[in-house]
Amino acid sequence: MKLSTQKTLEQLKSVLKNPEATGPDPVYFVFMDVSEDKWANITIIQNGKIGDEYPKTFGHYHSNPTPETYHLLAGSGILQLAKKHMDGDTWVPEMVDAVYLVKVKPGEEIVITEEYAHSWSNVGEMPTISYDDWRSGHLTGFTLLFSRRKWRTKGYP
Prior knowledge:
The protein has about 160 residues and is mainly beta. About 5% of the residues lie in helices and about 45% in strands. The chain has one helix at about 10; strands at about 1-5, 30, 40-45, 70-75, 75-85, 90-105, 110, 115-120, 130, 150-155. A six-stranded antiparallel beta sheet has the order 1-2-3-9-4-7. Strands 8-5-6-10 form a four-stranded mixed beta sheet, with no helix packed on it.
């Protein structure tokens, strides 16, 4: 197991409601090569607040059609999901068809398909710790800025 990602407040500024807010820093860690079995990574999100919002992961889409499974080990997590808007075969990144907030409890698993951007928030009093089985990498071209982005939802201005 090795540290793959450590996201700081500075690195998350573009997705924070208040980019100058203070809070836990680093905000989260991702460890990779957890096992050769099902689980590939462990993500640990610090508890507390960053200004008036909860610590969260950066948020992204996958370009690979392989589903990703998360298993919450500990803590209180809210998974934010945003469904891609497609105009025929063309993805329209400034629009989403739906946004979902899913409260996940320790022991529960959730499967995410390529249509959904996703980001975790830690809404509890202790670090949120999750496993995932994603081994295909994340492409920056599919990054979704969850907090400050102005989304248009299909059928609404």
